[in-house]
Amino acid sequence: MAALPSPLSICRGILKELRAIHGASYRRCLAYNYVMDQFRKNKVTGARYCRAQQDAHHASYSYLCLLQSTRNHQVLHSLYHGKGERCPEEVAGLVGLRLPTQPGGKGWEK
């Protein structure tokens, strides 16, 4: 398994995603309070190895991945979905192609 980022960077990432969702008032939402309480409760101590702390670290990283993936999905969904019927030229342009033109005026091109 790959090494997880530090808990501080995960916390910052989660707060960044909450800020993107809720705007400037993200500190007043319940998710912000819950995340901050959980990070304070599972703070790193030098006393001993704690399995619950490692589980919380992994769960927080998974939550950050979920938030980022959801935001990326919404961006892609709004970009490519819900445009209705598209003309062939527009569809070809989406994938970076151009439709060939027929020289001589066969009657089917514009």
What's the helix and strand layout?
Elements: H1 7-22, H2 30-41, H3 51-80, H4 88-94
Helix pairs in contact: 1-2, 1-3
Indicate the radius of gyration in whole angstroms. 24 Å
Helix/strand/pairing category: mainly alpha
Listing every helix as H and every strand as E from the N terminus to the C terminus, the arrangement reads HHHH
Number of strands: 0
**Span between termini:** 57 Å
Largest sheet: none
* Morphology call: elongated
Strand content: under 5%
- Kindly report the average pLDDT value: 82
Helix share, percent: 55-70%
Number of domains: 1
Low-confidence stretches: none
H/I helix tally: 4
Oligomerization category of the chains in this entry: single chain
Descriptive overview:
By secondary structure, this protein is mainly α. It has one domain. The chain has helices at residues 7-22, 30-41, 51-80, 88-94. It is elongated. The mean pLDDT is 82.
List keywords for this structure.
Protein FMC1 homolog, mainly alpha, FMC1_homologue, single chain, 110 residues
